[in-house]
Design a protein that fits this description.
Helix content is about 30%, strand content about 25%. The chain contains 15 helices and 24 strands. Strands 18-19-17-16-22-23-24 form a seven-stranded mixed beta sheet. A six-stranded mixed beta sheet has the order 3-2-1-6-15-14, sandwiched between helices. It has a three-stranded antiparallel beta sheet with strand order 4-5-8. Strand 14 and strand 15 form a beta hairpin. Helix 4 crosses helix 5 and helix 10 runs antiparallel to helix 12. The model has no long low-confidence stretch (mean pLDDT about 95).
């Protein structure tokens, strides 16, 4: 195991849907330098979402180089690195040459939803084994599609040249000098092929999806000697790999059961740390946050597919200056906005409806429409928080991510949940969390100050709209478990 850094810097690599980010932290957890390289997304219709895997690799290399060549990093050693990636995104590649045989098929992709329905009678068994629901957003049905429809993948499978699995595994094989073929538990668990209790691939699930174990990476812990990343004339040990949301849970240090962690980016995710033995509320997910030689930490998780992506959905339709409009909402909330039935990207937890219409109930000007979309994100998060609190009471909420900069969203979340919402002076929870993991989870890591607290207030009109929204969702078949 790589030793935690005593004096060197920590390099965090975060490969996300909109870009690849590299952030350098000092040994105490202070951010020193950052570089971001945007990446493109290819969409075809509502179900097919892909990215160029070669572009993802290049973008990470460029971001790492830019951060390491910054003034803050000059003449300072970089002791260790960590990588966080989009969960549920998969790639197939040639294990000998490293050449990608498919594009990176995004977590947002739902192309094989119809095929997945033949496993619907086994949905309860899949949930019992994985802690997940049977959803086309996860990797197994995407891998099945590649095996059924991509000639290059089929040829590689016949000749034992196929490597397939989470995006994280492909990136590790491309970026590290040793070219490892391994998978961390957070990303492996988002394939529907992984047994989180055993922290390994599940033979019954491999059989159900027709995926052979020899095609998949070897399962290893979150904390592991993954190999070495060469950045210019530096050779840096990579000591942690995980999923983006799993990393974000460690942005404030080790997560605790009493605090809900909400990260709002393209999607919105709410997590609470727990043990594997705590009963899982219906509609929520059990996730692996991290594992090491001492065992694993798990969470209960709710996912909202349409957060930042729903804002983009609206922007594409009305041409609104979103940043300016969000600032306007923070100062002067919209009066009597319509309701938004938020099916952007399919309806996630706790309803799990891949095909759900995105539509407004009522009308309004552009600002009222934006308010309705933001409120729908808060409504969906509130439903998931209610389910979490059926197991045990939460004390407060910590928010992070780009859309968490919206005071309007934070006020709505506090009002609907009845919990205090803490927002920190933190833009990128994923990068900070994976840096903390790569550094060995040091006890001296900097404690971030709270930037602003949002206290619960009388729900009033917002509570009334929430009730109307829930009734509207129920009429459309989205009933709370």
């Amino acid at each position: 195991m790589v030793s935690p850094p005593a004096s060197g810097l920590v390099l965090a690599l975060d490969q996300g849907g909109h870009g690849s980010r590299a952030v350098l932290f000092d040994p105490q957890g202070r951010e020193l330098a950052e570089a971001l390289v945007p990446v493109a997304t290819m969409r075809e219709g509502t179900d097919i979402v892909e990215q160029d895997p070669a572009e993802l690799v290049r973008s990470l290399r460029v971001a790492a180089q830019d951060a390491c060549e910054s003034d803050a990093a000059r003449s300072r050693p970089i002791a260790v690195a960590g990588l966080a990636t989009q969960r549920s995104t998969i790639v197939c590649w040639d294990r000998a040459t490293g050449r990608a045989l498919t594009n990176a098929i995004s977590w947002q992709d739902r192309r094989n939803a119809a095929w997945l329905e033949h496993l619907r009678p086994h949905a309860a068994d899949v949930r019992a084994m994985t802690g997940l629901v049977l959803s086309p957003h996860y990797g197994a049905s995407k891998l099945r599609w590649c095996l059924d429809h991509v000639p290059g993948v089929q040829r590689a499978a016949r000749t034992d040249a196929l490597a397939a699995g989470p995006l994280s595994s492909f990136l590790l094989a491309q970026l590290l000098d040793e070219r490892p073929l391994v998978a961390d538990p957070a990303n492996a668990s988002r394939t529907l092929l992984f047994d989180p209790a055993r922290l390994d691939w599940s033979p019954p699930l491999l059989d159900a999806f027709g995926v052979e174990r020899k095609w998949l990476p070897r399962c290893v812990p979150t904390h592991h000697d993954f190999g070495h990343l060469t950045v210019g004339d530096r050779r840096v040990a990579l000591a942690a790999c995980t999923g983006d949301q799993s990393a974000a849970a460690f942005a404030f240090g080790p997560p605790t059961e009493s605090i809900a962690l909400v990260n709002v980016g393209t999607g919105a995710f709410v997590q609470r740390a727990t043990s594997a033995t705590v009963p899982l509320p219906e509609g929520l997910l059990r996730s692996v946050l991290r594992s090491n030689r001492d065992g694993a930490t798990y969470s209960h998780e709710g996912t909202v597919n349409g957060a930042g992506s729903a804002i983009e959905w609206l922007r594409d339709r009305v041409g609104l200056d979103i940043e300016r409009a969000l600032r306007s909402l923070d100062v002067q909330p919209a009066t009597d906005p319509p309701l938004f039935m938020n099916g952007v990207g399919g309806l996630g937890a706790p309803f799990w409806k891949a095909d759900f219409p995105a539509e407004f109930v009522g009308g309004g000007d552009d600002l009222q429409l934006l308010a309705a979309v933001v409120e729908s994100v808060a409504f969906l998060l509130a439903v998931n928080l209610e389910l979490m609190q059926r197991v045990a009471r939460l004390e407060r909420i910590r928010v992070s991510g780009g859309l968490a900069r919206s005071d309007y969203l934070c006020r709505a979340l506090a009002g609907l949940s009845g919990l205090e919402v803490e927002r920190y002076a933190l833009r990128e929870a994923t990068a900070r969390g994976v840096a903390f993991l790569a550094a060995g989870e040091p006890s001296g890591w900097l404690t971030l100050p709270v930037e602003r607290r949002f206290t619960p207030s009388d729900g009033g009109e917002l509570a009334a709209r929430y009730s109307l929204w829930r009734a509207g969702m129920a009429r459309r078949g989205a009933v709370t478990p």
